[in-house]
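Can't paste images in this forum, so I'm doing it all in text. The chain is below; anyone willing to post the predicted structure tokens underneath?
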Amino acid sequence: MKRSNYRILLTVFFLFIFYFTQAQKGKVTFSAGSIKGKTINGVSYRILNSIPGKRVTFTQDGTTVYCNYAKQNVKTEDFDGSGNVIVKTEDNVKIYGDKINYSKSRGNVIITGKEVKMLKDSTTLITDRLYYNFNNKLAIYTNGGTIYSKETILKSQRGYLNNTAQTLGFKLKVFLRDTASNLEIEADTLFFDITKNTAFFPQGAKVVDAKGVLFADNGEYNTDTGFAKFFGNAELKNEDYNLTCDEIQTQKSWGYSIAKGKAKLLSKKDGVTIMAEEMQYSSEGKNTKAYGKPIMTKPLGEKDMFYLSADTLLSQSDKVDTTKLTLFAYPEVRLFSAQMRGKCDSLVYQYNDSLINFYKDPVLWGSESQLTGKKIQATLKNGGMEKLTLTDDAFIISQDSLKNYNQIKGKEIISYFDDGALKKVDVTGNGQTIYFPISKTGALEGVNKITCGKIKMTFLEKNKLEKMEFEGNPDSKFIPPHQIEEEEAKLPGFRLRFGEQPNLFQMQMRKRRYF
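Text version of the structure:
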């Protein structure tokens, strides 16, 4: 047994001894159907029996005891009784049992039976052996008991009920069930404040409800409001996700819970992990709002990892079809993977359709390329890029082996990928391109400038251009190397932003704060 547990039990034991040594002062009065005197080993006793219509009755200081048979010590006024025992106190406590030991000198009774029942207001205790002190209104059981209070059921091996302070304490195999919310709590130690209808768990608890199974070092739960607070290595598990954090708060009427302090939510289905300083999540785990420097990670195959950070991450399920999930990230969005890096003000990721929409000055970088547009949409397949659409002022800049910048511009640019490799690019609406051809010997041949309605490009391995097709009266111009001037090498709106790329170190450092 842990030293702290031993101290708690020792404290309860001495409280028990102290309380029970405070004697009641009033005289014990009695009545019965028949009363006889008897001497046993030199001690005088009264033998009291009931008759129809008149039970054995003892009264002292507002406490009345009923039974069918009793043997009372004439000198001490202590007695033992049996047969349909009933105890009624002046503070409206009622106790029922089979046998009773009544000690005037200690001011307490010990009631035993197949079912000992104590009633106080809306609380009922059932056990097989109960100690009750009249002076201090303290009830103790040590052989297992069950308490029913409104919609709460509580079981434990040991417990005490202080009717004066309106507190309950329980120890060993404590089990609490709130039938209204279908919540169950298991703990080694529990204290219950009747005035506040709140249970406290100072030495750890296991909580089971519709959300899953929760473990925590400490906690409290209000059976009226449903407010619960669990802290210290809090961990929530269910079939869909795992959540760990420093503290969890929830309430029946909220419809959601709050996780605080290094909160980490893992979706088992897709491996997505969201980490944040604070997180709100629904009971089904489908609506989650993370803030306080949050970051999301998702494995891409065996070697790559996708990182997404923002000031706020919000995952919501569709109101009609709850299986459809959408992730909103805003503002200051940053994303990173081996295939792609990016930044924008806000992002919308539709899980079911595998679509990511980037808004407000979005920029993406992949390999040696920079992609911009007023709006960018990425279509994913098997965790990788399948299609990338740049809309309005679409612009792609790619650096070649000679450090020249090949450029494509148009109203809309759609790039197609296969297993992460660029295969085709379609440009529509005022298509423009600047391309620096390189000879087989690796020398610059010049620069091609072409303007037309549509441009189609196909690529070989390692994003090497294979063919370009132009439609709609192309206007082309070739400039040899010695005549290339700086303004001739840039399309309108050319802007290098490679230095703004998020890097892996930044993402990993943000993630590391939650471990």
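Residues 1-24 have pLDDT under 50 and may be disordered. Residues 280 and 375 are 29 Å apart (CA to CA).
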